[in-house]
Amino acid sequence: MKFREEYRDGEAAALLAAEIARTVTKPWTLMEVCGGQTHSIVRYGIDTLLPPKVTLVHGPGCPVCVTPVEYVDKAIEIALRPETILCSFGDMLRVPGSHSDLFAAKSRGGDVRIVYSPLDALAIAKAEPARELVFFAVGFETTAPANAMLAWRAKQEGIGNLSLLVSHVLVPPAMRAILDGLDSRIQGFLAAGHVCTVMGTREYEPIAARYHVPIVATGFEPIDILEGVLMCVRQLEEGRAEVENQYRRIVRRDGNEAALKLMSQVFAVIPRRWRGIGDIAGSGLGLAPAYAHFDAEHRFGAVSTHDEAAGECISGQVLRGVMKPPDCPAFGTRCTPEHPLGVTMVSSEGACAAYYRYRGLAPAKEPVA
Amino acid sequence: MTIDNPFALSCPAPLPDGERIQMAHGGGGRAMARLLDEVIRPAFGDAELDRRHDGALLDIAGPVAFTTDSYVVDPLFFAGGDIGTLAVNGTVNDLAMCGARPLYLSVGLILEEGLPLETLRRVARSIGSAARAAGVRIVTGDTKVVDRGKADRLFINTAGVGHIVARAPIGPQAVRPGDAVLVSGDIGRHGIAILAAREGFGFETAIESDCAPVAAPVLAMIEAGIEIHCLRDLTRGGLASALVEIAETAGRAVALTEKSVPVRPDIASACELLGLDPLHVANEGRFVAIVPAGEADRALEIMRRFDVARDATAIGAVAEGPAGQVSCRGPLGVARAIDMLNGEQLPRIC
């Protein structure tokens, strides 16, 4: 694949790691925002190439992890109704609700279908006009345009048997909430490259100025991440706090105008609760008034919010970068992907799942080979 | 014409196109006899079946390997194969992994009422030609029909018997530290072919399943006196699951080098797009051979003589421990742990 191997080149990585080591004079703690970046870091061992003074902590950018438990419960409730088809991205099926998950709902007879594109849900709704199709619309700004396109097309085509259960979240308010936290130790951010592809980098400028943190829009390949770290560390060492763009081959300062226009038509900014983190003002997207009749909560009852039961899981601290997965006493023992205590162990973008999958039970274990 | 018309039952006319499987086709009566005579037996083409006995009467000398597998793949037909070729090759390959020469298969068909007869014809022909290609005989079988909605079109069970030709037991227990880990070709094609067929991704290039019998290169290695310690065919769960199983049973570690694991560029691209790890993607015509390091080159040379293993290559080595650990050294030189997939990557791929 063109433009893949180039960004996974061992020699280029070693050169960047050496340049980072030459640049760093003080200890710095950086957060990579996106779960995709976390997986890349853990899978390729990028953190092990960095000098000890640079610490990477993992951010909240796992959409599945932060979807509130009550939305999972609602999706299960909808899926178990005889007239409904619940369509979801595959990642959501294993996510535990209060008592169950969507895989269990499927085994109990619920019609739960995995789709790869939101528009697949439109095709199913058209093919089965006697059924009510509900699309579980989760994710960050990255998935919002495609999900908005589903609602827009359904409206254009007058599809009456389709609705969306929307639990969209936005990155910048979460970054502010993390920085406002008393336990925050974040000194710089690697912003999520694909979120920036849609949104651009403009909205990070006030954050960089207000909190005096460097923010570097960064890609997902090893070379991207190492370059993002280098750019961030250079800023810190020089006392700068600017928004920079490492992911220049994709990200523009103004984002994707067509996507932003569609999102602004279909969605409106609302307060949102984040699983493991709590309520964050202005941190979510809900359907705009013009699309209210496509809201699954209008058709099947509103999602009732309730406080999460406090348990052993530290996923809230993991998602805010306060703790790392191996810091959890349950990691790899009482909490595994087969028996997860929290969503960060379930999702393919979850930090705990990344450590479990790529580092085995002992994260610091020496490689065999 | 319908099959429950008494006049039609005695009609010698061939089964018309467009006909569908009905409950009577599994009822043990005339309709079933006709199905077997006109569709199944001609396709399978074995004299033993023509005797219409309750079972096959066989004469096998020496130690025997015996295996069974059921096939429920969806879709039934995909690029590079279908449920019929899978059902033959899967069981043939399991026998080969035991160090056995595959000899005989049984074929059990479970048909859903309403299955187009043409579908059954196609699958039966595939079973017959796959068996001939693999050099095995189909000597006994069974056909059942279940009510519409009680099965998904067509399920197959095959069992197989083979004559063990390996001189020493082949299995994880024989694996030693320092052994070379060989794979018979590029990985991940079957899983991606099924996914492409099912989801209609419309990749630019057709991705065909690797579904194939792999007995020939295995038997050739045995005949050449290669000291094979372990064989495992790669099916669901991919290379990762096979190696983790071997490492766990053997109580050894396996260390791979990512760049030496053969993955075709189109498969690598599809995996990137879909967020899959090729190490976890299913195969149906690939196997791992673990041999003493000193035998690796000769084993590879023999494997590569066969089309099905022409890209055979060494991908890693067995280490003393930690027991059960499989690791893979990535492009940055850092090793990551390889585990079995949790849950299913894709249901009903074989």
What does this structure look like?
The complex is a heterodimer of chains A (369) and B (350). With 369 residues, chain A is of the alpha/beta class. Chain A folds into two domains: 122 residues, 3-Layer(aba) Sandwich (Rossmann fold), CATH 3.40.50.11750; 152 residues, HypD, alpha/beta domain 2 (Rossmann fold, 3-Layer(aba) Sandwich). Chain A is 38% helix and 19% strand. The C terminus of chain A is likely disordered. Chain B is of the alpha+beta class. Chain B has a seven-stranded mixed β-sheet with strand order 8-10-7-11-9-12-13. In chain B, strands 1-6-4-5 form a four-stranded mixed β-sheet. In chain B, β4, α5 and β5 form a beta-alpha-beta unit. The longest helix of chain B has 18 residues. In chain B, 50% of the residues are buried. The N terminus of chain B is likely disordered.
State the gist of this model.
With 369 residues, chain A is α/β, with parallel strands linked by helices. Chain A has helices spanning 10-23, 35-44, 46-49, 63-66, 69-79, 102-107, 118-127, 144-156, 171-180, 193-199, 205-211, 222-238, 257-266, 296-300, 315-319, 351-359, and strands at 28-34, 54-61, 84-88, 112-114, 132-139, 162-169, 188-192, 215-218, 243-245, 267-274, 278-287.
Which secondary structure elements does this structure contain, and how are they paired or packed?
The complex is a heterodimer of chains A (369) and B (350).
Chain A: H1 10-23, E1 28-34, H2 35-44, H3 46-49, E2 54-61, H4 63-66, H5 69-79, E3 84-88, H6 102-107, E4 112-114, H7 118-127, E5 132-139, H8 144-156, E6 162-169, H9 171-180, E7 188-192, H10 193-199, H11 205-211, E8 215-218, H12 222-238, E9 243-245, H13 257-266, E10 267-274, E11 278-287, H14 296-300, H15 315-319, H16 351-359
Parallel strand pairs in A: 1-2, 1-7, 3-4, 3-5, 5-6, 7-8, 8-9
Antiparallel strand pairs in A: 6-11, 10-11
Helix pairs in contact in A: 1-12, 2-16, 7-8, 8-13
Chain B: H1 6-9, H2 30-44, H3 47-50, E1 64-71, E2 77-78, E3 81-82, H4 83-97, E4 100-112, H5 117-134, E5 137-146, E6 154-164, E7 180-183, H6 189-199, H7 215-223, E8 230-233, H8 238-250, E9 253-257, H9 265-274, E10 287-291, H10 296-303, E11 313-319, E12 326-329, E13 335-338
Parallel strand pairs in B: 4-5, 9-12
Antiparallel strand pairs in B: 1-6, 2-3, 4-6, 7-10, 7-11, 8-10, 9-11, 12-13
Helix pairs in contact in B: 2-5, 4-5, 4-7
